[in-house]
């Protein structure tokens, strides 16, 4: 893979935000020419494929400003500094759904948009949910509503583009091939 490697000459920091950092790297290409790469740096995230005792999938509906619409997604959230992915997964599950679990199985991890971002999402599975005694407050600027749906209904909502993100599409494919 070294034959495709690009060497960074210079990095210009553009923005350092709460969720992302933006930078423009000047690079030397494998053929010796130079180019610019606009990059998003992200701390990473988790997503949780959670099944209830009734074998329903737990979703949250949330407005996504970048899309200018609400979509249904599996519970997910950003890694905090120094926090292990499984800790983030349990925290996000609790905050967004009112459920907790003592059993999280790492399914996979993937890069969301490797052409311009380094965000790595860890996907966990659990079918051992316990309802919390009291709801845990989530982020003050986050408004979500929980849904529990069977796989067939979720697939229909994907066709309607009410479910329209990669991590949730992956979750449905995972469950379908798993036989849930």
From TrEMBL:
- What cofactors does this protein use? Mg(2+)
Q: Which InterPro entries match?
A: Nudix_hydrolase (IPR020476), NUDIX_hydrolase-like_dom_sf (IPR015797), NUDIX_hydrolase_CS (IPR020084), NUDIX_hydrolase_dom (IPR000086)
Domain annotation Nudix hydrolase: ranges: 40-176
CDD domains for this protein = NUDIX_ADPRase_Nudt5_UGPPase_Nudt14
The UniProt keywords, alphabetically, are: Hydrolase
Sequence similarity: Belongs to the Nudix hydrolase family.
Q: Report the protein name in the record.
A: ADP-ribose diphosphatase
Task: Identify the taxonomic lineage of the organism of origin.
Answer: Bacteria, Bacillati, Bacillota, Bacilli, Bacillales
